[in-house]
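Students often ask what a 'structure token' actually looks like in practice. Rather than answer in the abstract, let us consider Transposase, a protein of 101 residues. Its sequence is given first.
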Amino acid sequence: MVMKHYPPEFRADAVALCRSRLGATIKSVAQDLGVNHETLRNWIRLDDAQRTEASASTASASAPASPEEENAALRRRIRELEEERDILRKAARYFAGETRW
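Now compare that with the structural description of the same chain:
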């Protein structure tokens, strides 16, 4: 079996795509991207671990204490959603054959 090496950007995009598809299985997303489903599962596990470490290091990750903190948290969430949207657009162009990944 040949070990394939995927760029970090592709891995991050694949994980974000998998998380953004509600109701889709890891296997179906992996098949759409042309990667092994266990490979994608491992990428998701690594990302989960990184997110857990990041949220543990941020003490104010729970409820915001002030309106300013709440606004900052909402802005971060908006940026995350915009990134997911951009990833989905990029994937749509890729699958339509308009561009290479």
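One point worth highlighting: The mean pLDDT is 85. Ask yourself how you might have guessed this from the sequence alone, and why that guess would often be unreliable.
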